[in-house]
From TrEMBL:
One of its GO terms (biological process) is carbohydrate metabolic process. This is Ig-like domain-containing protein. Residues 1-24 form the signal peptide. It comes from the Bacteria. Residues 415-425 have a biased composition (Low complexity). Keywords: Signal. The lineage of its organism: Bacteria, Bacillati, Actinomycetota, Thermoleophilia, Solirubrobacterales. Pfam families: Big_7. InterPro entries: Ig-like_fold. Residues 415-434 are annotated as: Disordered.
Length: 546
């Protein structure tokens, strides 16, 4: 080729270069959501579970000019955009590649840059957390509060665990995962206890077991001796038991002396009965305790006593033991050292063999009347509620003496003798004018008995006040007290309710239509026992010393 032709071609080529479009370029920026990596020409970018991407995530590309000679040997040139094939690789087990942002598909994305370009590779968590519930066994019976725990793990981390029993839930966001579920207000029945674990992607897994909620104590029925029952020695006491509950129960029994803590053990008749025999004298408590599978407890108790000791009777009489009286009506009152006692009485001439005991005239007293002069014995015997009777009855002897004869009639002579009057008709004699005769009324003789608990400078507290030896048909009166048709022993308990001031008095009058009244005055002394003085008051007269 000649030199001239070469020059022409070089000029044409130069012109083509000068006349071609300007070179184009672009920058490729790679980002990721989720853990993984992206590689390509000039790109080696990676991201972990958290934080930003690291490595070479940006690459600049310059368009490349490509020229070819046409059929005439003329060069034809164009600018070709440069790029790379991007490959996505999962970085953490359990994640999957979830595609690119843009039109790419598959794990490899071919990009050609004619301008700046951003590409995002998406990695998605595809595995749910693993979780295992603890703290409660499958089929457990629970009540009150249920403690739950859980072990949970995830490839990307657990964000929270939700614990639940029925519809009651508690969330725990920090390991170790645990919660206590309150179920006291839940209806008894079957529920699921569960732990549900979540990861950052919202994936979840649940571990659960069936449980039975039982907040109700067993029902315990006891048949047998009621509380307060008393028995004689050498006897057997038996109680039958009926226990019901929605879950399994255990039943235990205890018999201990009153005031001693219960000592529960197996019931003698299993869950259905319990018996004890031969307990010594004393008070006892029988207890039965039923416990269900949830731990609910129901107790029922019965108190009872074994009584091998006879009661002891105390007697208060109108007359002291061995005393003599002219009264033909005598009363006795009595009490015992234990409740529930019944009494039997008899009154008989002391020299004769007594007859059988019979009912007393009242529940805690006896009155006998119509005594002829002589020596008599009164006996009372107490029997308690279980049949223990006094081996030796309480006995009081007394003598009834004849009433003294009335004093002789007194004839009062007039100061001036009067002539004997004349009479008509028949007659038996004469009476001096102005003569007066009388027969003295028998005097009431009673005893005012008292006891007191304390006597100070200012006051005395009486604990009892009774009038003894009141003739039948008498009236006993005092300020604020009156009892008609009285006999025997009359209690003035209503007058002892309040302490009595020093110097104060209580005057008790015992009157009878056919007898001279007795007036007893009790005076309160400072720091001393009260004293009693007596006055007598014949009918129609003023009181005077007896």
């Amino acid at each position: 080729m000649s030199s001239a032709r070469r020059l022409v071609l070089l000029c044409l080529a130069f012109f083509a270069v000068i006349a071609s479009p300007a070179l184009a370029d672009g920058t490729l920026r790679v980002s990721m959501s989720g853990p993984g990596s992206v590689t390509g020409t000039g790109i080696n970018c990676a991201r972990g579970l958290s934080g930003a991407a690291t490595g070479d995530c940006v690459e600049a590309f310059v368009d490349k000019k490509v020229c070819v000679l046409d059929e005439h040997g003329k060069p034809e040139c164009e600018m070709v955009a440069q790029g790379t094939a991007l490959k996505a690789t999962v970085g953490v087990s359990g994640f999957v590649f979830d595609g690119w942002t843009g039109d790419c598909s598959g794990r490899t994305c071919d990009v050609a840059l004619s301008d700046d370009l951003g590409v995002t590779a998406h990695f998605r968590d595809a595995v749910a957390p693993s979780v295992s519930l603890g703290g409660v066994a499958s089929g457990a019976v629970v009540r009150g509060n249920v403690p739950l725990s859980a072990s949970a793990s995830d490839n990307a981390g657990v964000t929270r665990v939700i614990f639940a029993v029925g519809g009651t839930t508690i969330v725990d966001e920090q390991p170790p995962y645990a919660a206590t579920i309150p179920i006291a207000g839940m209806k008894d029945g079957n529920y699921d206890a569960s732990a549900k674990a979540f990861d950052a992607a919202g994936l979840s897994s649940t571990s659960s077991v069936p449980v039975t909620v039982d907040n109700t104590a067993p029902s315990v029925g006891v048949n047998g001796p009621a509380s307060g029952a008393a028995f004689t020695g050498g006897t057997t006491q038996t109680w039958t038991l009926a226990v019901t509950d929605t879950t399994a129960t255990s039943v235990k029994c205890s018999v201990v002396p009153l005031g001693t803590p219960a000592a529960f053990g197996a019931c003698s008749g299993g869950a259905g009965a319990h018996s004890v025999s031969g307990k010594p004298h004393g008070a006892y408590v029988f207890s039965v305790r039923a416990t269900d599978a949830a731990g609910n407890v129901a107790d029922v108790t019965r108190s009872f006593s074994i009584d091998t000791v006879a009661p002891v009777t105390t007697v208060i009489s109108d007359v002291e033991d061995g005393a003599t009286t002219t009264s033909t009506s005598i009363g006795w009152s009595f009490s015992a050292n234990e409740p529930g006692v019944s009494y039997a009485c008899r009154v008989h001439p002391a020299a004769l063999t007594p007859g059988p005991f019979g009912p007393c005239s009242s529940a805690a007293g006896h009155v006998a009347a119509g005594f002829a002069p002589g020596v008599y014995a009164f006996e009372v015997r107490a029997t308690d509620a279980v049949g223990n009777a006094e081996s030796t009855p309480i006995k009081r002897t007394f003598t009834v003496a004849p009433a003294p004869p009335p004093p002789p009639a007194t004839v009062v002579d007039p100061v001036t003798p009067q002539p004997t009057p004349s009479h008509t008709g028949t007659g038996t004699g004469s009476v001096l004018s102005g003569a007066k005769s009388s027969t003295a009324a028998p005097q009431i003789v009673v005893t005012l008995a008292f006891s007191f608990s304390s006597s100070t400078k200012k006051q005395t507290k009486l604990t009892s006040l009774v009038v003894k030896g009141v003739p039948a048909g008498s009236t006993v009166s005092a300020k604020g007290f009156k009892k008609t048709n009285a006999a025997g022993i009359v209690s003035l308990k209503s007058l002892t309710k309040k302490p009595l001031k020093a110097g104060s008095t209580i005057t008790v009058t015992v009157s009878h239509p056919a007898m001279s009244s007795a007036i007893k005055t009790l005076k309160i002394l400072p720091r001393k026992s009260p004293v009693v003085t007596t006055q007598c008051q014949p009918p129609g007269s003023k009181p005077k010393p007896c």
